[in-house]
Design a protein that fits this description.
five-stranded mixed β-sheet; elongated; CF(1); ATP synthesis
């Protein structure tokens, strides 16, 4: 049995750890509220963009723009969104596991795909397993601005436009609720009919200058950048929720451990007192 000093030391260290996890839970909760607010504030912009795409692309059914035209897939592009830090449960591992499974099923050679990674966790995981990374972005802010991710979003779009890849998919953790996040795959390029026509079409009566094809060449890359940015906001909300849940579980486990150790400490202390009393009684009897 461990000594009283050892048990007392474990109790004190566990209490300190509980203070840390409780503080991290509160920080993640605050970040989650901000992330949810950012996502909601971004929705009106996306709705207007979708209205414009609906009005233009919907009328241009035979558009020759490469972002609207499916082509034979010879090389796939994967944009993977993970966290920079740990302590978020299975947030990153579930997304990476899904990516690895899909690559194993669909590809027999690394020449058939390119990987772009957001987050240090994804970079370390893939490099340690020998996967080649096309481009990466680490130290992504907890509340990312559009400017902070625009460069890597543009790089992904350029890969498609220059036909280095024939499709672009995003792997991320979709925020469902505080207690649930769901590993999800979303195809970004070429734009599906749903992506290019899910607006309300309120701009259908507008006249556009110059011609619609010229407008599409400008607005479609911006729209895809917005899709990627919106997905990153969603993934960040999921990350904060996962970390908040993980820290709450850690705090609860620490409380249970402290209770168990306290009980163990009391039993050991009682046994030690009983032993001391027995020794005193025995010594007294020996003197008689």
């Amino acid at each position: 049995m461990a000594s009283l000093k050892e048990i007392d030391g474990r109790i004190k260290s566990t209490k300190k750890m509980k203070q840390i996890t409780k503080a991290m839970n509160m920080v993640s909760s605050s970040k989650l509220r901000r992330a949810e607010k950012n996502t909601k504030q971004f929705e009106p912009y996306m709705e207007k963009m979708q209205d414009a795409i609906t009005a233009i692309a919907g009328a241009s059914k035979h558009s020759s723009h490469p972002m609207l035209r499916p082509r034979q897939v010879q090389r796939s592009g994967y944009l993977v969104i993970t966290s920079d830090k740990g302590l978020a449960g299975a947030y990153s591992s579930n997304v990476l596991k899904r990516l690895i499974n899909d690559i194993s099923e669909k590809h027999s050679s690394s020449d058939e795909y390119s990987i772009i990674v957001l987050g240090q966790s994804g970079v370390d995981f893939l490099k340690n397993r020998g996967y080649e990374i096309e481009n990466s972005l680490v130290d992504v802010p907890d509340q990312p601005s559009f400017k902070s991710i625009q460069a890597i979003a543009k790089h992904a779009i350029d890969l498609f436009s220059e036909e280095h890849i024939d499709e672009l998919k995003i792997y991320y953790s979709h925020y469902v609720s505080v207690l649930e996040n769901k590993p999800t795959t979303k195809q970004v390029l070429p734009l599906s009919r749903e992506d290019s026509s899910q607006g309300q079409g309120q701009m259908s009566s507008y006249e556009f200058e110059p011609d619609k094809e010229s407008i599409l060449s400008v607005i479609l890359p911006q729209y895809v950048e917005s899709l990627i940015y919106g997905t990153i906001l969603d993934a960040k909300a999921s990350e904060h929720a996962a970390r908040m849940t993980a820290m709450k579980n850690a705090s609860d486990n620490a409380t249970e451990l402290i209770d168990d150790l306290s009980l163990q400490y009391n039993r050991a202390r009682q046994a030690e007192i009983t032993q001391q009393i027995t020794e005193i009684v025995g010594g007294s009897a020996a003197l008689e």
